[in-house]
Amino acid sequence: MYQTTYHRASSLEDAAKLHAGGDDPKFVAGGMTLIPAMKTRLSAPSDLIDLRHIDGMKGIRISGQQVEIGALTTHADLAQSKELEKACHSLHYMANHVGDPLVRHLGTMGGCVANNDPAQDYPAALLALDATIITTSREMKADDFFTGLFETALEEGEIVKAVRFTAPDQCGYEKFRNPASRYAMTGVFVAKGAGGVRVAVTGAGDNGVYRETEMEEKLAANFSADALEGVTVSPSNMMSDIHASAEYRANLVVVMAKRAVAKAAGH
Length: 267
Known about the structure:
The chain has 11 helices and 14 strands. It is an alpha+beta fold. The strands form 4 sheets. Strands 4-5-10-6-7 form a 5-stranded antiparallel sheet.
């Protein structure tokens, strides 16, 4: 690696001050995306500002159907929460199948949201759940927050504090795992609630997480895997790499969507 300066922020105000004083600073929590990027020289921050020790940014708060998750809450915290399992079983299931034990105990909800890595699961969940992203300066709907591959609407120095959503009536998530990393080569989260049906895809689109609107229309009329028979996804907007071709991922979107709906309908 290379020279970088580590800072341990004691508060959000302290983090903002440290960020303003750096040449090319980056916030870090679990580091599951940033540290590998630094190792491969894809990212070279002058300063690393550790957010892990800031009070009040960790925990799961559920009131009725409203769920709020602090940005520093780890995958393991989510996986162990019986309250979350009851409120949104598919998000709980998702947390139990993120990476490996090391990743689950270090990786955080906020890090996944802020990095918008296509291999991550949570962006699909938040998009399908019509979640609100709460930052140090504003609140944004997931539709507006996720803007492209590794891109979000976050401005310089802005920090994700929490995410909030209404627990769905039914939901399901299925992903095709990379056999080595266990990350999503294609993952589909389906949610049905008061606002209708939403279908979000991660790991497949060449512009990051996105919604499958044709599937949403089909499922709004008939919420079952049968409703997706005959539906196809164009490979033109799919990623293609050493792990899977665009055509393969396009097919996986349909297969994972059917499985997600079956899981949601049968829960």
